[in-house]
Amino acid sequence: MISFPHLIVPLVSLILFIVFLFKWYGNPSSTARKRLPPSPPKLPIIGNLHQLGQLPHRSLQALSKCYGPLMLLHLGRLPVLVVSSADGAHEIMKNQDVVFSNRPKLRVIDKIIYGSKDMAFAPYGEYWRQVRSICVLQLLSNKRVQSFRRVREEEMSLMIEKIRHSSSSSINLSNILVSLTNDIICRVALGRKYIAAQESTKIVSKLKEFQELLVTFNPGDYIPWLDWINRVNDFNANVEKMARWFDDFFEGVVEEHRNRKKRETNLKDSSNEADLVDILLEIQRENMAGSPIENDTIKAVIFDIFVAGTDTSSTALVWTMAELLKHPKSMEKLQNEVRQVAGSKLDVTEDDLDKMLYLKAVMKESLRLHPPLPLLLPRESTQDSKILGYDIAVKTRVIINSCAIARDPLLWESPEDFCPERFLDTGMDFRGLNFEYIPFGAGRRGCPGITFAIAVAELALAKLMLNFNFGLPHGATEKDLDMTESPGDTVSKKIPLLVNVRKNNKY
Ligand code: HEM
Ligand SMILES: *[C@@H]1O[C@H](CO)[C@@H](O)[C@H](O)[C@H]1NC(C)=O
Ligand SMILES: *[C@@H]1O[C@H](CO)[C@@H](O)[C@H](O)[C@H]1NC(C)=O
């Protein structure tokens, strides 16, 4: 028989050992220390704000080289998870997409886009689902994009004529491509006939102002007690003024469409394609969406298509042309392909694009090196979760650095080189299935405008390659071509692309 004093020593040691184990392997109680992603050292109050710099996607890429593919930054009081690896993106945009499909509330957007009644910034939920399904099924579907083929072809011809008849051999290609994408979106969304030419340039400059306002550093967003700054400077007043301008503009457009509809009793009989405002009004009238659509929703959705669709598309085209000018061998190869496909008909149409494999590879490579939205659009987590072993708290803002992922040397060979050939023998695509390459995002919140955007970009590129020979301005060499990026949510080429153009007389 063993006496009690004999037991006491092993018992006490056992208890101590268990206590020790609990301390070591994490405490199951609610005060447990979480395992957080690494964070760079931060300053008081501003946190890591000072580390973002002019080009946040580049600064964050550099930081991730020291702190790893998942970093937790603090922008003022705001916790921000920065994801710089394909694995991390896959976890967030696929495995745990539901948890990360919210967007943070951004005050400027809230004020200007009717309390975030649009699709891009609406919080994740029933309203967003309804608006998104209207857009995906009705406005941006393959069939609808096909129905605007004539608009694209007419606008492309106008662009070619404009270049052909320009008085000088040196042209501002940035300017030409911005007009092209803007004119196409204007016609598709609003129906150009109802928009006077001056109004259409006005909207371009207003959208630019809007984008500038969006990226204006707004201390109150990060440090709540600094909010008073916006009341004393003109910021809040400017936002109000802009909200009014856009509302007047879109209200006018919708009103004109309503009046026109009264005259043309049956849209389907008219010779014109229905534009997106027509379609939204029809959905509202026929109550096709399940629950009634408000007037503000129509204006907000059209606004979204302008904001999401114009700048991004022209930016992508300008970068593509710039890379081709920097790489004359690729340009020549592309030109040969396009001219060979055009053959004796001396023209290319959308039907020919599927035969242009190199052209598709060039577009992909350009979007890899220069994704127009390198940080996608911000997301926000709706519950506590675990990503690659780290604890991520509810309401953490999430930034996915698609640009860093697309240049990750672990995933890409010579990632900094422009080399369209890398896409030739792979099935790799930008539709959100390959997480090493996500210029359009992925998952529930991924870009619904891919088909629309690619239809415009590929045809524009083919037409330009067919009709002209491009070169750098007189005396410049490939090395002189400035590829500096401009600050902003959409990262475009800072210096406008000026090129020398020679007409190809055969076409
Ligand atoms: C080259 C051109 C374009 C690029 C690079 C691009 C890229 C993107 C990206 C990165 C996102 C965020 C995805 C995410 O958070 O995961 C996005 C969202 C969006 N894009 Fe695009 N986009 C382009 C063209 C367009 C066009 C032409 C349209 C419409 C006509 C469009 C409409 C939208 C909308 C509405 C959203 C928000 C979706 C949501 O939050 O549910 N985009 N786009
Ligand atoms: C070229 O076009 C862009 C875009 O419209 C414009 O901002 C820029 O001032 C133009 N530059 C020159 C030199 O014409
Ligand atoms: C939308 O605006 C029209 C015209 O101003 C008005 O007749 C209609 O009642 C409004 N509809 C809704 C749902 O607010």
Automatic annotation (TrEMBL):
Cofactor: heme
Superkingdom in the source lineage: Eukaryota
Pfam families from the UniProt entry: p450
Residues where heme binds: 447
Any one GO molecular function term: oxidoreductase activity, acting on paired donors, with incorporation or reduction of molecular oxygen
Claim: Oxidoreductase is one of the keywords in the record: yes
Membrane topology: Single-pass membrane protein
Subcellular location: Membrane
Main location group: membrane
InterPro entries: Cyt_P450, Cyt_P450_CS, Cyt_P450_E_grp-I, Cyt_P450_sf
Keyword Membrane applies: yes
Family: Belongs to the cytochrome P450 family.
Protein name (Swiss-Prot/TrEMBL): Cytochrome P450 71A6-like
Native organism: Olea europaea subsp. europaea
